[in-house]
Amino acid sequence: MPADNAISELIQAGRAEAAFEQLVPAFRRRVFGLAYSLLRDRGAAEDVAQEVFVKLWQALPRYNGRAQLSTWIYAITRNTAISAMRRRRRSVSMSDPAVFEEVESRGAASEAGLDDAALWRNVGALPDKQRQAVILYYQEDRPVEEVAAMMGLPVNTVKTHLHRARASLAAALAGAGEEVA
Fold it and tell me: Which residue in 116, 13, 128, 117 sits closest to 60, CA to CA?
């Protein structure tokens, strides 16, 4: 990406503040989008995005350019979102009325049948690593090698996650009367 290169050059030149001024608008939507795709909660995703940019500000002078800037930012975002998910899991209980209502509303929506967003709802139900691989590969149009680097996994493991995700999606959509392209 051209923005990656320009920002990387500023970092290498020791101009972290100028780099950060360009980095935030260039990556704001992608950081939030990734956080939201993992957390599925707008408020939590906004908190994670803010935390990511604080971490980036602090770590920017140490960026060494071994990985693409976007890959480095993705890894920080993914790790921060996963940490937030772990914190949330410890604090969420089915006895909480808000959680119970959310579960009930999702159940009612799925019983009503599949609509235009059926595919992405089913993607959201995939296991974390499969969902991440599908989003990066299909939605963000990243090559398998880059997805592997971003997820910190071997290429063949990412291919396996994609294969299993496609099989799960095909079964879920076929069971609901939809065809998978």
Answer: 13
Tell me: do 51 and 101 sit in the same domain.
no
Instruction: Please count the structural domains in the chain.
Output: 2
**Residue where one domain finishes, among candidates 91, 122, 146:** 91
Q: How confident is the model at residue 95 (pLDDT cuts 50, 70, 90)?
A: very low
pTM score: 0.59
Per residue in 102-125, pLDDT tens?
Answer: 545 544 444 444 444 677 788 888
Widest pairwise Cα distance in the chain: 57
- Between the alpha carbon of residue 100 and those of residues 103, 126, 128, the distances in Å are 5, 21, 22
**51 lies in a domain?**
yes
What's the pLDDT score for residue 2?
62
Q: Within its chain, how far is the Cα of 104 from the centroid?
A: 25
Domain end residue (candidates: 76, 91, 106):
91
Q: What is the mean pLDDT of residues 48-71?
A: 92
The CA distances from residue 91 to 48, 85, 96, in Å, are 17, 10, 10
Residue type at 144 in one-letter notation: V
Type and span of the H or E element at 180: none
- Closest by CA to 31, choosing from 157, 150, 178, 170, is 150
Distance separating alpha carbons of residues 177 and 104, to the nearest angstrom: 23
User: What DSSP element (H or E) covers 175?
Assistant: helix 155-175
